[in-house]
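Q: Fold this one first, please.
A: Sequence and structure below.
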Amino acid sequence: MIILVDFGGQTAHLIARRVKELGAQVRVVYPEEAYEKAKEEKPDGLIFSGGPDAVFEKDAPTVDKKIFELGIPILGICYGHQLMGYLLKGEVKAGTKKEFGPATLLIGKPSTLLDGIPDRSIVWLSHGDEVSKLPEGFVENAKTSTHNNASISNENKKFYGIQFHPEVVHTEFGEQILENFLKICGLKIKKRIIDKEFIENIIQDIKDSVGRERAICALSGGVDSSVAAALVYKAIGKNLKAIYIDSGLMRKEKTNFAMEVKIVNARKKFLNALKGIIDPEEKRKLIGRVFIQIFEKEAKKTGAKFLVQGTIYPDVIESAGSKHAKVIKSHHNVGGLPGKMKLVLIEPLRNFYKDEVRKIGKILGLPENILNKEPFPGPGFAVRIIGEVTEEKLEILRKADKIITDELKNINLWQAFAVFAGIKTTGVRGDNRAYGETIAIRAIEAQDAMSANFAKLPYALLDKISTRIVNEIPQVNRVVYDITNKPPATMEWE
């Protein structure tokens, strides 16, 4: 068994997932309880996660130093790597050059942790601080082009620290590194598979939770809510009622549902509520409140006590789903929900990632057109409009978004969409000065939504999209392309 010490990193849960996929049991604990839990439970190994703090800051999360005396192998990742160096009397300082995104790992001295890894490989970083002086007994095993001590080790004590993130898919040999650590801990590798038996256990858990009560489902037609609804329907059958709330904030497309759905037109209610709202956090939370008000009203009609939502783990992470995590943005179905909500939440996908959700949906027999649907935010275009949401801005954004999706429909991307940037710029139309809106194009390649690369689209294609947008939407006179990866950016602009 592995104990994962969660310092609030955005990918801490992803570390647990990767380790579980390799066949090991994982227990996630907070730093302040880590020593006592490790002493009591005697795990095979410890992993210190990343985190948003600096180890030398006041009140930064830490562990009891006695944890290093237990004789248990330890892997420190990013913040965990820095904390281990700091507590063992090395030195950590703010880096002169920050590293966010891909870098080349250059291996020097061999390490058991890096067995089977080429001398040069791509790793993913997200840090501002660095271990500048190694603790006694440690050696440097690898560096990047801009930083030393990207991988360090004390082989005698089986302590290992890495500045990069092996858990994200963009680190080329990340799984191999985690597998190596499990072998160092004496564990056998047996990869976990999502199969029918696994799904039956989820369905049984739902049955046990809901019993004979009724539930309503917040259905959007997207993959997350559709899979969540299918799981709950398997568990409670006709006691589930599916509801689609037409907020007026979604794409202009036919919404496909795999079951009978009641549609509630609430366009005016949402637009009126969003009047004058500029702050993105306030937008998300307000949308969450309005959704719940409508669902509670509908629940009274059916006698439902439970509300089913398609919340997945990246939503939870960005809404600070961990004690030491920082809120990046509240999701309308997580941080945006009111504290005194009358309905009891059922979120069967809360601990899963998008790729896993699709696997579950495929086993459940959901249609391909639902399973392969591009991710779309629950708050819809409200979080793709920078500033106040108005009917005019929504119409401009819908047209631009339709052009982008039409032109990119044959390219296999995770997401591609338009953003109403809220910036007016000067242009020229027919020899006259024009002062128009700016549209940003966001196109992303990803696997699990925890990390992503911007898509390297051909210039000719971008040119075609840009030309269509400015020609077909007279209010727009500038188009820009977002070339930022995640991290440091998130998928959405708000």
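Q: Good. Now the second chain.
A: Here it is, same layout.
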Amino acid sequence: MKKQQSGFTLIELIMVIVILGILAAFALPKFADLSSDAKKASLSGLAGSLKSASAIARSSQLAAGVTLGTAVNLDGANVVMVNGYPQALATGGISAAVGIVDTSDYTATGGAAAGGSTVTYQLTGKLSATCQVTYRAATAAADNTAPITAAPVVTITNSGC
């Protein structure tokens, strides 16, 4: 009577382990860098939100026909404006327009009511000048009624994420 064999031989098992080791050596570095990619993607998403919210707030103000410095209401948030765009404020202004109401994801610093002021958003837990998004408010002539001289600028710095 012939005996039926089943399973792997020792050589087959060693070959599978070697192949898995080779695959892991090439795949592991890619997976190790995913946290950096995720941080960069998060900053890019925030920058896009800042640009969109700024444009929506401006459109809302123009549609309402109010003066350039008047606040607008976006989905229940009072967005304080300067020069026809949201102010660069850590609370209120552009932060309210984007909907950043807590600091679990981003830490906002700086900001002022004047045109040309900046507010900086850094990932909470990764406070670094090389991993941040900066919003600079619109600037205009001194009387706040002249045409905008510079629209808001959103800058991403992600070299240290």
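Q: Anything worth noting on the second one?
A: Helices lie at 10-32, 34-64, 93-98.
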